[in-house]
Amino acid sequence: MIRKSITQDTRYQLKKLPKGNFPLKLQLYPINGKQEYCALNLSVSKKQYQQLLTGKKLPQDLMEVREKLDEHLRVADRLMKQLNPFSWQEFERQFFSYIESGDTGEIEAPTTVANLAPVVSLPPMAMAEVSSDNKKECLAPVIVLAPPLMNEIAWEKIKELEKDKAPASTIDGYRTACNSLLAFFQYQELQTYHVFRSGRKRGHVSTPILPEYLPALRFLASYANRFTVDLINVNFLKSYQFWMESRGNAAATVGIYLRNIRHIFKRAMKKPGGKSMEYPFSRDGYTIPIGNNNKRALEVEDIRLIYNYNPQCVQEQQARDFWLLTFLSNGINMKDIALLREANYEDDLIVIKYRAKIVRNVKKNIPPIIILLSDQIQQIIARWGTKKRTANSYIFPILAGLGPQAEDREIRKRVQNFTRLVNNWMKRIAVKLGLPPRLTTIVARHSFASNAVWSGESTEFVMESLGQTSLATAQNYIKGLPDKRKKDYAQKIAASLAAPLEQAS
What φ, ψ does residue 24 adopt, rounded to 5°? Predict the structure, then answer.
């Protein structure tokens, strides 16, 4: 369904207009996935525009403007009904003919501005019924709000998260997802009708990278001001998924982005201008992709190769030690290792009450993570731990210089940099040992969970050791039985069938 509204173009001041006045334009959307505009030969100031928006106690001059806008919308509505199937070119020609001459004659229409970026959208004003007495149409200013802008809803969500002191990873997740969707919208717009003025090839789009501390979508404001949430439909989402995967993103990454986008869409539907939007994320519409969840776990023989590896430099030794520390410490992640303090010691144990990832959302009693201080762990702490520690000091200097009230974003940045360092050096060690090259700390976490189950421990044990809150989540870390064990079991079954009945029993 094609919607229409009145917008004000406040991008620049036209010389032919009174100072402070900006032109009003008719907006139709979506037309081939984008918005189109027609000039109305009307202009008002920003303050007058807000008065038109509210429609309360309008002076005589604005009442006349309002009546003209209602008339323009009435004509646009009549043309849209007559053109079946709808053609933008024919609508544009006839509507401009009406604007220039007052009727729908065959007057050639001027060219529209294809890349208009409206800042504010005025809701369309519906028509009243025709009076049976004088056959004259009485125009009633019934307000129908235009769809909300994607960047406004996203920025509202981000500000809400920042106010609630949400984890930096959550905030950045929304920011990155929305910026990615805007990049795709820019790509579509340029592929459809843009030719770069700088002379670059048609359709060539550079990937916009949003600076870390800028609000989502603000970096490409000219596109963000045209990206209304109602443009997100099933075809749009399918095209976005294909675009993301063609750029090397895994299905799991696309799924993470789209779950955040889905939340933004639901928020937009609660806004006055979004209540009429069709929800695309449904079983009969678009389904968010789920990652293959390739479980990356090493068998104990491969882990023994890493343990016995002789590092060639200090960086290799540090990377190997912290990878093994993750494996030996119940698979805890690097952030939990970085946050370990002297206060976590209890005799020959390290006790972590809550994982850093869930400390804000604890809804039930979760058993603490208990790590036995083995000889290997004590050697790693002695080699890389902070030498002079107080009761509140970090065991490792990963977060050196950051106090107890440190910003979550700064902690996350430090942990990410250190994890990246460990993973990069472990990649070199993996090549030397003939192991899979992506020998990350996540592999160590998966390896702990899988080897625990392979050795006979229950999934409940793994859940408690990992500090998870559900069996289903813990199951995601467990890899199926190694091929060698499957072969041994198959041979055992085959041998039992081939044996005499007395022997088999």
Answer: -100, 145
Residue 30: is the preceding peptide bond cis (ω within 30°)? yes
| Token pair recorded at residue 204 | 């060539």
Q: Residues 413-446: pLDDT tens digits?
A: 899 999 999 999 999 999 999 998 888 998 888 8
Decide if 183 contacts 209 (C-beta within 8 A).
no
Euclidean distance between CA atoms 126 and 137, whole angstroms: 12
Contact between residue 32 and residue 40 where contact means Cβ atoms under 8 Å apart: no
State how far the Cα of 343 lies from the Cα of 353, in Å rounded to an integer. Answer: 11
Whether 276 contacts 228, CB under 8 Å: no
In whole angstroms, what is the distance from residue 462 CA to residue 476 CA? Answer: 11
Give the tokens for residue 94: 């006839």
Phi, psi (5° rounding) for residue 274? -115, 0
Amino acid at 434: G
Cis before 85? omega within 30: yes
Burial of 65 (0-12, 13-18, 19+ CB in 10 A): buried
Closest CA to 339 of 349, 350, 347, 348: 350
Residue 142 phi, psi (nearest 5): -85, 125
The Cα–Cα gap between 284 and 288 comes to: 12
Q: Which mean pLDDT values do the consecutive 10-residue runs of the chain (505 residues) have? A: 79 81 83 77 86 76 85 84 80 80 43 31 37 41 64 88 84 89 79 40 37 36 70 90 88 90 91 82 87 73 92 94 91 87 79 60 66 88 87 86 76 91 94 89 87 79 70 62 59 64 50
Cβ–Cβ < 8 Å for 158, 174: yes
Neighbours of 374 (CB within 10 A): 12
Tokens 């969500």 belong to 157
Phi and psi at residue 331, to the nearest 5°: 70, 20
Q: pTM higher than 0.70, yes or no?
A: no
For residue 51, give every residue at least 6 positions away whose Cβ sits within 8 Å of its Cβ, in sequence order, or none: 58, 62
DSSP symbols for 456-501: T--HHHHHHHHT-S-HHHHHTTPPPPPHHHHHHHHHHHHHHHHS-H
Predicted local confidence at residue 355, as pLDDT: 58
Residue 200 DSSP code? P
Reading the block at residue 218, the tokens are 């603000």
